[in-house]
């Protein structure tokens, strides 16, 4: 067991409830996590990024990456028509090749959930909705809960909530913990099922790797089903080192508690080459257990197009013309 796992809640007599018993116990636990070795982390991420993938494995990896995409539109100018056409693309990414997998989910604002749900009905493609005053997370709890409830009532399968970085960076960990717990409760449906909860850290605003590690453990203890890097709305979004750190956190959390949590890097992932680097990191850090859309997602608006172009290049030996993929 790693040092992290040994320190973790659930290990050696610790308990989840004990860790969050008070601001002081939560702070003691989060600040007791081992400091991140920045040089080591960045060097591991860089090394994994240089691994090459052979052609047959690449074809498999491209299809896997497509199936892991949360195809996203989160613009103020989103319209019903745009969301419907994004759903059509997610359902049939390459109409000329029916062997192309579907994406995992379509990710939209709460007011677009009903439109996406209708367009995807019966397909198995999930509807994910950002919530809790995305992307800033700056609103009172009642507003965040109402935002979540609206999305769940409209049929969202997954909720992507943002943490309040101001509260986190000020050390108000218990407030962040309790907000995640309350949003998790708001994900419950009247029939007893629950929308899956992804917790977005906005790692580009968390300032240090130690904070990313703390946020990861905080969210996992609070009940996140997934931990997600970024909103895609700030200057620095998903990066390989931050994602590797989060992959290591879910690995250690499972070792300590037996609970498996998913990971979603999001924002700025646009090329097949980038996606392959992330899949190598998942494979080398976590292995097969996480190599599925159930446990790993890419939050991305334009990655799909590049994957489709590379997929066609692999099967035909040439790139398609400019009309082959739609430009979002
Ligand atoms: O969660 C997904 C992001 O908002 C999409 O970011 P992107 O447009 O950089 O791919």
Key terms for this structure?
binds glyceraldehyde-3-phosphate; alpha/beta; TIM Barrel
Describe this entry's structure for a reader.
By secondary structure, the chain is α/β, with parallel strands linked by helices. It has a single domain (25-316), classed as TIM Barrel, CATH 3.20.20. 48% of the residues lie in helices and 10% in strands. It has 14 helices and eight strands. Strands 7-6-5-4-3-2-1-8 form an eight-stranded parallel sheet. 46% of the residues are buried. Glyceraldehyde-3-phosphate binds next to strand 8. InterPro entries: Aldolase_TIM, DeoC, DeoC/FbaB/LacD_aldolase. It comes from Kitasatospora cineracea. This is Deoxyribose-phosphate aldolase.
- In the sheet with the most strands, the strands line up as 7-6-5-4-3-2-1-8
CATH class: Alpha Beta
Total domains, how many?
Answer: 1
Largest sheet: number of strands, sense, barrel closure:
8 strands, parallel
From the 3D coordinates, which CATH architecture would you assign?
Alpha-Beta Barrel
Task: Please give the radius of gyration in angstroms.
Answer: 19 Å
CATH fold title: TIM Barrel
Shape: globular
The computed structural class is: alpha/beta
Question: What hetero molecules are in the model?
Answer: glyceraldehyde-3-phosphate
- SSE order, one letter for each helix or strand: HHHHHEHEHEHEHHEHEHEHEH
Strand element count: 8
Report the uncertain regions: 9-14
The overall average pLDDT, rounded, is 93
Q: Approximately how much beta-strand content do the residues carry?
A: 5-15%
* Count of alpha and pi helical runs: 14
Span of the ends, CA to CA: 45 Å
Portion in helices: 40-55%
Oligomer: single chain
Enzyme class: lyase
Pfam family, one: DeoC
GO molecular function, one term: deoxyribose-phosphate aldolase activity
Pathway: Carbohydrate degradation; 2-deoxy-D-ribose 1-phosphate degradation; D-glyceraldehyde 3-phosphate and acetaldehyde from 2-deoxy-alpha-D-ribose 1-phosphate: step 2/2
């Amino acid at each position: 067991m790693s040092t992290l796992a040994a320190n973790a809640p659930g290990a050696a007599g610790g308990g989840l409830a004990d860790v969050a018993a008070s601001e002081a116990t939560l702070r003691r636990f989060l600040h007791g996590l081992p400091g991140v070795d920045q040089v080591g982390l960045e060097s591991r991420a860089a090394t994994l990024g240089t691994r090459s993938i052979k052609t047959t494995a690449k074809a498999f990896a491209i299809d896997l990456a497509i199936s892991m995409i949360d195809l996203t539109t989160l613009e103020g100018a989103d319209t019903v028509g745009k969301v419907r056409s994004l759903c059509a693309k997610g359902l049939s990414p390459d109409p000329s090749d029916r062997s192309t997998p579907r994406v995992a989910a379509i990710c939209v604002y709460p007011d677009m959930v009903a439109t996406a749900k209708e367009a995807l009905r019966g397909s198995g493609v999930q509807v994910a909705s950002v919530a809790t005053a995305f992307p800033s997370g700056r609103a009172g709890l009642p507003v965040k809960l109402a935002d979540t409830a609206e999305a769940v009532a409209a049929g969202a399968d997954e909720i992507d909530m943002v943490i309040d970085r101001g509260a986190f960076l000020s050390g108000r960990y218990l407030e962040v913990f309790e907000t995640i717990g309350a949003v998790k409760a708001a994900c419950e449906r009247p029939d007893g099922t629950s929308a899956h909860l992804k917790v977005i850290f906005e790692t580009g605003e968390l300032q240090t790797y130690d904070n990313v590690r703390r946020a990861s453990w905080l969210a996992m203890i609070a009940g996140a089903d997934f931990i997600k890097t970024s909103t895609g709305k700030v200057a620095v979004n998903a990066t390989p080192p931050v994602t590797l750190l989060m992959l290591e956190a879910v690995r250690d959390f499972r070792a300590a508690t037996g609970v498996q949590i998913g990971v979603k890097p999001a924002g700025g992932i646009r090329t097949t080459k980038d996606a392959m680097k992330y899949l190598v990191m998942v494979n080398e850090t976590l292995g097969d257990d996480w190599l599925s859309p159930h446990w790993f997602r890419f939050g991305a608006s334009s990655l799909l197009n590049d994957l489709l172009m590379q997929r066609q290049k692999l099967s035909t030996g040439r790139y398609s013309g400019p009309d082959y993929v739609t430009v979002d």
